Amino acid sequence: MTFVVGDNCIKCKLTDCVEVCPVDCFYEGPNFLVIHPDECIDCALCEPECPIDAIYAEDELPEAQKHFLALNTELAEVWPNITEQKDPLPDSDDWKDKPDKLQYLER
């Protein structure tokens, strides 16, 4: 099993989760983070660190966000690895509770 970054991360990209990951399985795009499912060891340390509740255990992923598992897998293969916390996006507070942000995902 793996953990999955979902919709709420788009346009927020808070990186608190990256700091606690013991295997460095996070990858960074312009406005979104993903978890590489083959590298995640299911330690569950990242989930409570996410201040916007954007990380789910694979078996707890909401039905409307099931496609994010494939998206995390795809993008983790092309985006660079991130291992240190960075400043959030400048307008992340404006986006943290907005639903259905997939249309804003920058690849």
What is the helix content?
10-25%
Largest sheet: 2 strands, antiparallel
CATH structural architecture: 2-Layer Sandwich
How far the N terminus sits from the C terminus, by CA atoms, comes to 25 Å
Structure description:
The protein has 107 residues and is α+β, with helices and mostly antiparallel strands. The protein has a single domain (3-86), classed as Alpha-Beta Plaits. It contains 4 helices and 4 strands. It has helices spanning 16-20, 46-49, 67-76, 92-95; strands at 3-5, 26-28, 33-35, 55-57. The strands form 2 sheets. Strands 1-4 form a two-stranded antiparallel sheet. A two-stranded antiparallel ribbon has the order 2-3. The mean pLDDT is 97.
Q: Which keywords apply here?
A:
107 residues; alpha+beta; Alpha-Beta Plaits; two-stranded antiparallel ribbon; 4 strands; globular
